[in-house]
Amino acid sequence: TTDILRVDGLSTRFFTEQGQVNAVSDLDLRIERGEVFGIVGESGSGKSVTARSVIDLIESPGRITDGEIWFNDDGLAEAVADDHPEAVDGSFVNLLEVPERVRRSLRGTSFSMIFQDPESSFNPSLTVGEQIAEAVEVQRRASANPRSTRAKTREYSLGSLVLSTVLPSRKYVSEASRERAIELLELVGIPDPVERADEYPHEYSGGMLQRAMIAQALAGEPDVLVADEPTTALDVTIQAQVLDLLDDLQEETGMTILLITHNLGVVARMCDRVGVMYAGEIVERGTLEDVFDDHVHPYTEGLLGSIPDLEGPTARRAADDRAEKPRGGGRLEPIPGNVPSLLDREMGDRCYFADRCPKAMEDCLSHPPEYDGAGSEEHEVRCVLATREYTEARALPTDYFGKAD
Ligand code: SF4
Ligand code: MG
To answer: Which stretches make up the ABC transporter domain (predicted)?
Structure first.
């Protein structure tokens, strides 16, 4: 497997009047091409900020203050190598080292995003079909040149004047793009797509608009689809249908999905690997089995405890068992306490879960837990319990610690 994205030491802060909010701190992430990677955590854990950072959607007063975001794309690497050699490493490009206009050119074509709230993706005064056709048109023009990424970035590198000519205005949307829009609506399961293409967003139900948003996101044939709580607002039956749709589309297109959710049921059903986020850090990550069956971090334990019926021999099986019936959205509120405020917090000076952790000890407050392996190669945990001494201790008979553990 090849990595499509490597995030190194990412920190994203918001500079507010109340102070500095360290929403994401020193975060590492590796996403393989074609996988579904889940980021799970309570609200306020920094998972959406992480996703938005990756695709350059952080707006003032937020700013990425540190880190590297390496995107694996031969064409892009070739296109920027001359002007920004420091941003290129083999086929990887550090997106934080290339000009804003280059990053912007990747939106919709290399990266697309879908949200909880589809209304935000559509202009209420244009038909759904027009808006999807427009997204198709952007992609068509960008790939008119077979060395498409180069074409895109070269065009964009000429400045905003050219940018405005690359983005079509509606009246120039071609018949081919309109036809493709209808195909896309059909692909995502919109009935009567020819007629529905001419309807306005308000004429769609919530579930249908969610599908239309997915169609719009797919118009540019993205390499990476970022899905931020894509089904949270939907009722459970529709939720299951939309997840099935994403799963099918992923399989068909081979695209990579970065899925942001608070719902472990969604993770179990969709993801290959998962990162558990708490207070701006990934505290545990690994394969689905690592995290569901062999988790070490007490926070992961707490999250899983909130949906006890998900714990089983393997999460996959648990997910399969329930594939038939739609699953509830159950919010995670079982762990006493709240995600700590990230306002003016010091970075990495201690474990931020300590206030809520049933296993907290002195070590946890005196130094920050580093990532440590916990068994399998992929499995990493940021908790003193994952250090060597504790790993050895865990291997002891379970009654070794008596009730204390
Ligand atoms: Fe709990 Fe300590 Fe681990 Fe933090 S480092 S999760 S306080 S045991
Ligand atoms: Mg799949």
So the answer is: 5-304
